[in-house]
Here is the input.
Amino acid sequence: MPDMLRTLSVFLTKLITGVNPVWVDGVPRADRLRVYFANHGSHLDFATLWAALPREVRDKTRPVAARDYWGRSKFTRSVAGGLFNSLLIARSGITRQDNPIGQMADALRDGSSLILFPEGTRSADGVIGPFKPGIFHLAQKVPEAELVPVFLQNLNRILPKGHLLPIPIIGSVVFGPPLRLEPHEKKEDFLERARQAVLNLSSRTRA
Amino acid sequence: MNLSSPAAREFIVWIFGVLTAASATGYFLAKSAKSPAAKTTVKNLNARTNSWWLMTVILLGALAAGPGATGVVFALISFLALREFITATPTRPADHVSLFCSFFIVLPVQYWLVHAEWYGMFAIMIPVYAFVLLPVTAVLHGDAVNFLERAARIQWGLMVCVYFISHIPMLLHLPAGELPLGRQGLILFLVIVVQGSDVLQYVWGKLLGKHKIAPHLSPGKTVEGFTFGVLSASALGAALHWMMPCGVWQAFLISLLLCVFGFFGGLVMSAIKRDRGIKDWGTLIEGHGGMMDRIDSLCFSAPLFFHILRYFFRSY
Here is the structure.
């Protein structure tokens, strides 16, 4: 049953967003350990990026989502956990036992890839905001993971923040070449480089 | 359209004969093409021909299935074209409700008005009521940035993609006379002449084209392509006069008008693409680009054709 629901979610997501992914660096093999990080403007981002992955990659890829938002009711928990196999993390009140970086690193070491939105929240106006430092700490902790920038176009127009019903605009997903943390690279430099890598992909959309 | 009538059968044989000839020509051109540039051109030509097969089958199938199915097919064409149009034109989150209503209320209602044969409302719903009500939904959000541009873009999208295209199935609801292919023949006449004009302009342009006609807007279009394309498509229209409630010369002149309007339609839509920095509206139709790339000339000639028939041939 969850399998059918997942297939249905992929179909519906592709139908609504019209997405036909672009891989700048070629389609990845399923055995790569990857962290996909993208700009965030819509509830669709999650599902769209996930649906754009090839099936064998998708089955090993877990979205990282805010527990305070997606864990708030039984329904949202079952969508995030049951359907997408999300990793729910705390955005505040972080303790040694409840540490999102540690949880993400554990998931990567278990062989899952991750989907991450480093802005931390959805942008209301489509501008890509500054990145939160989590992705830097994760890159330090799991240096073998490839960090893949992803640009999501028009999804914030299909379903903007604060709206319930999508409109049929055509979206784009562009997967860029992977980044790695350089030796001795400073946190601010890396975060800005990662953000720029997402921005640079905006010229590679299909249209 | 009654497919079993002798006229319809003969017509269908002709249509598929032309497509077969086009495919055969493409096959031999592909064998003889040497330079990489020629190979690219022939490849695109053959992709276009293959898409023509599919589009012909869909249109003939819809016409044979009746006015309801024809309306649904053109509603879908409008939907896909509007989708490409809105995707390419920037809007803001405050336009969300207005856009939602455009796709899911205005578009279906327009095609329902076709089905209901409510001509008065069909003619004014988008130009008056959508014009008035859609900006209201946007203004309630209190976002004034580029307000006139945003409202104008949505209204333009609805006019070009929905209002103009809905005149094609409305041809089936014109007062009927006896025509060899029925009122479906009017749709076929319009589509064959206007799309034929596009194809013939392309072919003549490739064969003789020297002088660019609009280098800044549409670098592929040439004076030679335009002149010979429009004239030969008008001659084609004259040859198809038997489908129409008029004589040879009238059919020729109507076709000439349709082709010129269609040409300007293509040019206007090219100007919008240029401004937005895109080459094609989409990737939906192999070899042609998006839906809007295929129907731009039809958008501008369909209302004209409808009005010519409605006001000058009322008694047929």
Notes: The domain at 2-202 of chain A is CATH 3.40.1130.10 (Glycerol-3-phosphate (1)-acyltransferase). Chain A has a mean pLDDT of 88.
